[in-house]
Design brief:
With 293 residues, this protein is of the alpha/beta class. The chain has 2 domains: 9-148, Rossmann fold (3-Layer(aba) Sandwich); 161-292, Glucose Oxidase, domain 1, CATH 3.50.30. Helix content is 31%, strand content 21%. It is built from 8 helices and 13 strands. The protein has helices at residues 21-33, 55-67, 91-96, 108-118, 136-148, 177-183, 210-222, 243-256, and strands at 9-12, 37-40, 71-75, 100-103, 122-124, 161-164, 167-176, 197-202, 229-234, 260-262, 275-277, 280-284, 289-292. Helix 4 packs across helix 6 (177-183) and helix 7 packs parallel to helix 8. The two termini are 15 Å apart. The relative contact order is 0.14. The mean pLDDT is 97.
Length: 293
């Protein structure tokens, strides 16, 4: 995988919502201040479906960035609807000419499908909107994963809470809870039955109640994938500690006998750590560490 170098082009698309031109120009300026060039998809401001461009327009932008040899990173945010694109992504071209993919939230669908279909690591945790005024922690996450590529120890920026103790090993998969559940059983997410997986999952109280989180975790638990899940790291849910969420996570950990921890390092909060989907890792919830392999 070729990492980013200063002067490289980052392609910005919008698979999940209608981008605001004024906002996205500010995001581009922030990215350019870090030493990169920006190319926009030609359809990111279209509202053909009222809430997004059409599926054909959105996948045309995505595949266009995949085909463009000058684009080294394909970057997009969240919303609703990225799952529309999964059947039309040129996975073969991605395998032939690998590049970097970074997103979060609704982008979960595309990131996990690309990893599952190609074996290429994708990156979860950040959105173009951060770069208008990016925090030092978020910038270090971006640089360490996508420019330096030397990340071994996961760097935290919040307190970790051990829900159930233990140490586990596996391939990292996950992202936004709703989208990850939608991927289960989807033919574009054919997980490997001979591998173990560590889940990193995030959800937001403004979008989903604790009851909803519990229901979606139950769906994961009832899936075939759960037979290979060795641990769970749950990201930012609310600005205040939620004892009821911790109770849900504890029941989940005890039921499946896996280590579980909670932190505010990633998700829809103020911290935006990056997780490499498809990379091996070791999670130790007692000592509150995550090591990349």
């Amino acid at each position: 995988m070729n990492l980013l170098k200063h002067g490289d082009t980052i392609g910005i698309i919008s698979p999940s919502w209608v981008a605001n031109q004024n906002d996205y120009e500010k995001y581009a300026e922030g990215i350019e201040r870090l030493g990169f060039q920006v190319k926009f998809g030609k359809n990111i401001y279209k509202d053909t479906y009222k809430f997004t461009a059409s599926a054909a327009e959105r996948v045309d932008d995505l595949n266009g960035m995949i085909y463009d040899e000058n684009v080294k990173l394909v970057f997009f945010g969240g919303g609703y609807g990225s799952v529309d694109l999964l059947p039309y992504i040129d996975y073969n071209r991605i395998k032939e000419t690998p590049k970097l993919f970074l997103s979060y939230s609704d982008g979960t669908s595309i990131l996990n499908a690309i990893y599952a279909q190609t074996g290429i690591t994708t990156y979860y945790g950040q959105t173009p909107g951060l770069f208008d005024n990016i925090s030092e922690y978020d910038k270090k996450q971006f640089v360490s994963h996508l420019v330096d590529g030397t990340v071994i120890d996961y760097i935290s920026n919040s307190d970790w809470y051990t829900i159930t103790e233990g140490c586990c090993e596996g391939i990292l998969v996950g992202g936004y809870l709703l989208n990850f559940v939608l991927a289960l059983g989807n033919r574009f997410f054919p997980y490997q039955t001979d591998r173990n997986y560590i889940l990193f999952i995030e959800e937001l109280d403004q979008f989903q109640s604790v009851q909803g989180v519990s229901m979606f975790l139950t769906c994961i638990g009832q899936s075939r994938l759960m037979e290979q899940v060795t641990g769970l790291l749950f990201g930012h849910y609310s600005d205040d500690i939620s004892p009821r969420l911790f109770e849900v996570l504890e029941r989940f950990g005890k039921k499946y006998n896996i280590p579980v921890a909670y932190c505010d390092d990633f998700g829809h909060g103020s911290n935006h750590a990056i997780f490499p989907i498809g990379r091996g890792a070791v999670l130790d919830t007692k000592n509150k560490t995550l090591l990349f392999q």
